[in-house]
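Morning. Coffee machine broken again, so started the prediction first thing and wrote up yesterday's gels while waiting. Chain of 82 residues, entered below exactly as on the submission form.
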Amino acid sequence: MEELVIKIKDARQRNFLLEILGSLDFIEIVPQNRLPKAKSKSVLTPEQQLFVDDLKEAIKDVDLHLSGKKILPNARQALQNL
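Came back before lunch.
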């Protein structure tokens, strides 16, 4: 297991970030003693929920691509589609 430390510049966005990270099945959030525990479930705005849903779908696409089950376009192809 690999550890990653994230420093949040805007403390008001902490719960939003924890909600996003907590929704990913391959991440375990380990609270530090000096930080208050995150709420188990926070209410997201519709825009935040859309972002979380899109992020989950993108991560699934990457997982499928890495396992060889889906071919994703390269950067040049993606830009041409815009």
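Helices lie at 14-22, 46-66, 75-80. Going to sketch it on the whiteboard this afternoon.
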